[in-house]
Amino acid sequence: MHEMALCQSMVELINDQQRELGFDHVTRVIVEVGALGHVDPHALEFAFEVGAKGSVAENATLEIRETPGKGWCMACSETVSIARRGEPCPSCDSYQLIVEQGEELKLKELEVA
Amino acid sequence: MCSVCGCSEGETRIETLTDHKSPHAHGHEAGSGIGHAEAHTHAPTEPQLTVLRNDPAERAQLVSVEQDILSKNNQIAGHNRRHFAAHSVLALNLVSSPGAGKTTLLVDTLERMQDHTPVAVIEGDQETSADADRIRATGAPALQVNTGKGCHLDAEMIEQAFAALHIHDGVLFIENVGNLVCPAGFDLGEAHKVVIASVTEGEDKPLKYPNMFAASSLMLVSKVDLLPHLNFDVDALINNARKVNPSIGVLKVSSTTGEGMDAWLGWIAAARQMAAAAG
Lengths: 113, 279
Fold this sequence. Notes:
Oligomer: heterodimer
Helix content of chain A: 25-40%
Radius of gyration of chain B: 21 Å
Strand order of the largest sheet of chain A: 2-1-6
Low-confidence stretches of chain A: none
Helix content of chain B: 25-40%
Order of helices and strands of chain B: EEEHEHEHEHEEHHEHEH
Mean pLDDT of chain A: 95
Structural class of chain A: alpha+beta
C-alpha cells in the first residue's frame, strides 16, 4: 500500500504550489499514471481521500489519466502496445520488449480556487 | 522524517551507531562536503495559472504542475548516488518477499567478502533490530531502519543511515523490507536492485510482481539445495523473469551448500569495476 506514501508526496507538492501561488483550496487534482507502473489507480483514489484530509486538497476530485503501455519490440523493430508487463508483443509473440511508455507517475495539473 | 512515506512523523526509527562501533570507522565527519540542501530543492518548474472560467462566482483556475510524484524521493536518491560514488561505494538494494532468505544469504555473503572488501549493511524492517543483530554478529557494521507502518525504505532513510555508516571503497548492502510490491517504485540511489526468489515460492512470482523483476538487474534464485525435495521448475521461474525483463541476470545460489556463491561474489566484483569505471 505504497499509494499512501505517494499521496503524502502529492500533498507536499500541492503545498509547495499553494505557498508559491497563494490559492485558497484545490478542487481537482489531475495525475498521470502509467499502465505498466507500480501504482494501482483504485488504491491511489482511496489513499488520496484519506491522505488529503486536513490539507488544501481535502475534498478535491482526483482525476487519474492512465497512459497506455508502449514498448520497442526488438523482433519487429517497431513500437508496439503493451497491455501488461509479462505479456508478449501483440504482433510476433516475442518477449524481447523495451518499455518506452507506461511508467509515468506525475502530478499534471491542479484546479484551484 | 520520511518525505514520501505514508508513515507519520516519528514512526521511522534509524539506529545510531553509538552502541555498535564500526570496525571501519575512520573519524569521517557527518556532512562530508556534499551539499544536502540540493537534495531538498524543488524542481524548477515555473508555476502557471490559467483562468478556467470567467464567471466570477467560481474563479477556478488551472495550475500546470507537471512534476513527478516521486520527484523529492528521486532527488534525494540522486544525491545518495553521488555520495556513494564519492566514497567509491557500490550500493546494492536487495529485495524479495518475506522469507526468501535475504538475511541468511547476506550473512553468508559478508562472511565470504569482508576479509578483502569493506562492507556495510542497512537493514530495513517494519519492526525489531533482529536482522541488524544477525549482521553485526558477522563483524560487519550494520544499521537497522525500522519503517514503522511504512512498507518500503525511501531515499531519505538511506541518506540518514549512510551518513552514520562510514565506509569507503567497498560495498553497501541495503536489505529492503520484505515486500515485492512497494520497494519497486522507490529509488534509493543504489547501483542495482537484486531480487531474491527462493525455490520454495511459486515459479510465477515474476509475473505476479512484474515491476520488481523489471526493476532488478539480477535475480538470485535462492535455496537451490532444496530442489531435490521440491516440485519446482527453475527454468519456468527464469523464463517468467525474462518475460518481464529480458536483460535480467540470473544466478542460482544456496547458503547451505555454498553453491553459486562464488558466481555471486564475482558478479559483485564486476559491478564494482563497472561502477568505478563509470564514476
